[in-house]
Give the backbone structure.
Amino acid sequence: MGGAAPRPTAYLPSDWTDATLVGRIQTKAGPTPVVVRSGRLYDVSEAAPTVSELLNAWPRPAEGRDLGSVEDFDFAAQPLLAPVDLQCVKAAGVTFAVSAVERVIEERARGDAAKAEAIRAALRDRVGADIRSVSPGTEEAARLKAALIADGLWSQYLEVAIGPDAEIFTKAPVLSAVGHGAQVGIRSDSAWNNPEPEVVLVVNRAGGAVGATLGNDVNLRDFEGRSALLLGKAKDNNASCALGPFIRTFDDRFSMEDVRSARVDLTIEGADGYRLEGHSSMDQISRDPLELVRQAMSEHQYPDGFALFLGTLFAPTQDRDTAGQGFTHKVGDVVRVSSPRLGVLENEVTTSKAAPPWSFGVGDLMRNLAGRGLLMAQIGTQWPAQ
């Protein structure tokens, strides 16, 4: 992503002057939480040294130092980091059941549209409903599961697509996610991989969704395809999780309904001249975002809050080099995930080995904040005794 750095308005939400945004920047002193209000950027680190603490107290206002207009701020000198810090990064998979069922049908039909419709119609007759409208965990979903098994079409992916339990997994360790403008990594030994453009909910310690951001859940299709037990290797690698540019907090101008109706666009531009475009529509999601939050917290607590990738409808099938071989990344690809109300998340692809190593952990952050005198005011006031 060479050339002159774009102005911040190029990657902010389209209505950024009306948005309240939360993020992190890398200053000379260290990682610093910031808030954008009415188009101005505020350093709130003295009131809330971490984004986790800021959002656990949200919407209680945090006093901050005015850094000026966000559109004039030099993010090249003080770059954006992933907008979460102590939050665990979770992800929900196969959340667009229609897409999962349709892919199984199309695979069985081997590209024959008429045969695919015949399979679809037969299933519809036995299930008693249009499979496009079946909700996960319902009696209709159970009948569809039985029909798919009878036809030899069942898979572990359909179990989480239409069964009662969502797939929820840990995407990345605390503090390992990268932000807008950083490189994203794919394993150097992967030959089939892709981006996954998603909306990401940010949830506080009480389980309340306080805002949303964009995410790229970098995925290795060859590793996961070999075995579901390789999901960890497919999903969690150096620089394989990108978030940003900011968290847009919920208010009277932006709500969960905007998340439910969001369209997420994706473009990939390669150094070889290759270009791919796609999108994912959140109104096609099978489980409501708040149901996914509920399942993530049903028997687990997150005292620092968590970020939750909501899944994607997008699956790249466009050939890149050889007919029939589909898409896979090349080093140098520029991936752009965008949605009008959330902004633009842009990253360049490299390998996980070549990406800057993740070297700043929780202990490093605590030592940094202590050295800056940002923890003393919090002890005994914000953090309850255990």
